[in-house]
What we know:
By secondary structure, the chain is α+β, with helices and mostly antiparallel strands. It contains nine helices and 16 strands. The chain has helices at 13-24, 70-82, 91-98, 100-109, 126-132, 157-169, 227-240, 268-274, 278-289; strands at residues 2-6, 28-32, 37-42, 45-50, 53-54, 60-63, 86-87, 117-118, 138-142, 151-154, 174-178, 186-193, 196-204, 219-222, 244-252, 255-262. β3 and β4 form a beta hairpin.
Amino acid sequence: MKIAMLARNANLYSHKRLKEAAEKRGHQLDIINTLRCYMNIASRRPEIYYNEQKLPVYDAVIPRIGASVTFYGLAVLRQFEMMGVFPLNESVAIGRSRDKLRSMQLLSRVGIGLPVTTFAHDPKQTEEVLKLAGGAPLVIKLLEGTQGIGVVLADTDRSAKSVVEAFRGANVNILVQEFIKEAGGTDIRALVVGGKVVAAMQRTGADDDFRSNLHRGGSAKQIKISPEERSTAIRSAKAMGLNVCGVDMLRANHGPVVMEVNSSPGLEGVENATGIDVAGRIIELLEKQAEPGKTKTKGTG
């Protein structure tokens, strides 16, 4: 197979591992800088250019689109889809997962366990929003934040109100969520590939941080997840329409609750913690599923 990977940094662990896994299985994988692509949107003849040359037709495309370039990255991916190239994850599904509010609504619709989550536009409704979420301590999140950036823990109702009003004053959208104290600063990331959990790790935050992101100094170890957690991860991936994703869950007293579904999960933490060849499983999935023109939009966006 000829595989294109949309990625801005060819030297990231995840990208090198995917290239290595593809080549080990006899495929060609070209890493293409998403932002250097430009498109000819001609009737019935969609084309993509890169480094002043028209890209050849690929069998599959692996989108590793950073959150900061979501808009342009999805435009490029849609162009690949119009050319009949099979995407590892479809543009519509990635768009859903990048919108924290939309993804929460979709997960809620199919009965996935979630922390109590509230959202409002009018700063005058701050007190009602805090009350709906159950009162302090509360987690306040920027809708556009990633890797733990833009996430604040407010210990008191007064501090929560100040944070919400500050964010709203800056005209940014936020979610307010209950704080799952019993999780103890740890979460679970389950890697779903082709409707199966292929690896799972428990992440623990740094001593002085309630966030468990590895980018923020957290640590990870392999973990055996329960059947309910496995089912929650698989159903979450299906609700988003993602073939490959990382599902982040907390262990609440009433069962697993999903915090986020990541459409471009990093592989370094989970492969090092578990010793599982996740990159190989992803290439294996492409071998089974990639067919010209098989792209279809799942759902309504």
